[in-house]
């Protein structure tokens, strides 16, 4: 039984990593809540709370931790456990899940809306990884007639291609460069924008792989670094507890290890934007 559960968890972890890597933690969170809603509608026996608890515990063990999703699921589970009986529980839970989805989307929209004030005329903004919030900010700013351009640092072809598709559709001027070639572009860059999977209690931003190197270069050249993260992404948990996944890769005769995400020190962040607007660092961690 233990081996089977271990394999099931490994499969779940892989699915979450691949989906988050391609679509981002935000889309993964919303899709997971929608999947939970559908699953609740299909429950046919009376142990609703036990099944939700098993689901939440599995998500808590994923590598790395999707903090917003975990926190939202914990709130849903806490509501279920607070009910005196399972009478009408499924209908009540469906209502709560819908409320959580609306709340999370509202926080995302507010973060993007607030982030528009970070863009100024003539900005050349470096972006390394796909972020739902940042894409929203760029689209809103362009629609408002802001004049700016973007430096896209090439990474995974699919993710870079998705970002380019958005920029082309919105007619936002951009240049694509290799990540290692950033020092050749810093003279034009005015800002760095990035998002987060989570922000830890000991001051690390868990974000897309490779972002720490980009942030270090920008910091070295005094380029302001902007972090966009709604408050559900903040956790009291430590960096080491975020279950960042490491795997071995082979290239010819060389074996090496790669990690699924980067850790950017919060000290490198110049400005933090949440659904409340521009916030002084650090903000209180919620869980």
CATH fold field value of the largest domain:
Rossmann fold
How many strands, which pairing sense, and closed or not: the largest β-sheet? 7 strands, mixed
The proportion of residues in beta strands is 15-25%
- Cα(first) to Cα(last) distance is 32 Å
The helix content is 40-55%
CATH class of the largest domain: Alpha Beta
Q: Can you give the mean pLDDT?
A: 87
Secondary-structure blueprint of this entry?
Elements: H1 2-23, H2 25-42, H3 48-60, H4 67-82, H5 89-115, E1 123-127, H6 132-143, E2 148-154, H7 157-169, E3 174-178, E4 191-195, E5 198-199, E6 204-208, H8 211-220, E7 225-228, E8 246-251, E9 254-259, E10 261-265, E11 271-274, E12 277-279
Parallel strand pairs: 1-2, 1-4, 2-3, 4-7, 7-11
Antiparallel strand pairs: 5-6, 6-10, 8-9, 11-12
Helix pairs in contact: 1-2, 2-5, 3-4, 4-5, 5-6
Task: Give an overview of the whole structure.
The protein starts with a helix and ends in an 8-residue tail after the last strand. Helix content is 46%, strand content 20%. It has a seven-stranded mixed sheet. Strands 5-6-10 form a three-stranded antiparallel sheet, covered by helices on one side. The chain contains eight helices and twelve strands. It folds into two domains: 2-110, no CATH class; 116-279, Rossmann fold (3-Layer(aba) Sandwich), CATH 3.40.50.10470. Strand 5 (198-199) and strand 6 (204-208) form a beta hairpin. It is an alpha/beta fold and 287 residues long. It is globular, with a radius of gyration of 20 Å. Helix 2 (25-42) runs antiparallel to helix 5 and helix 5 (89-115) packs across helix 6.
